[in-house]
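Section 3.1: Structural characterization of target chains.
Under the original work plan, the team committed to producing a structural model for every single-chain target entering the pipeline before any wet-lab resources were allocated. The record below documents one such target. The sequence was received from the expression subgroup and is listed exactly as submitted; it comprises 208 residues.
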Amino acid sequence: MKRYITILVPLLLLIFIAATRQHLHDINNSILLHYDIKTSPLLTDLAVVFAIVGNTTGMVVQTILAVAVLVLFKRRRDAFLLAIIMILGSSLNALLKNLFHDIRPDLFTSPYPAGGYSFPSGHAQAAVAFYGTLALFNRRWFVIVPCLLMILGIGWCRVYLGVHRPTDVAAGYCLACFVIALVTAIAARRPRSGGPKGSACTNSAACL
């Protein structure tokens, strides 16, 4: 039952955000304009760094390196799950972008502009998919804290740079949480090779 809840909650939140995002137009704009007023060279440089780390090239490189390290340490199951989560998440994100066709905000000129559609945020989705999965695999504070900071930093930079609305970022987070919950739930139902029939791994890191 808990497994189904972890899948349904982010999915329902994603649907809710998609259905109400137009009604939150004024709130989104007020937050964007707040960051336009509060800009500083230091914050802008930091936001650009987060944006570069979280862009498509950055996430692909990080994913390849993480998969290679996991395979090197004989955690092939984790490597496979991470790859599937990243591929499925980015595919669904692209599908939703083309479904909703939301244009990017244009309240001010971004110091690091982006192209394509806005909803949901690909940076936010990829950040949760990658760093969230790594934290799930290794639930120690010195892994969870940096991963959480990266997730928050990449999500923040999209709004600060004016290329996404807060609802875009929230939707990206929800989409990634849904994908992680779905993939890990399916993996947990499959018996590991060499294990007794019907056995399932509910904690990927603990089973390796």
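The first helix runs from residue 2 to 20.
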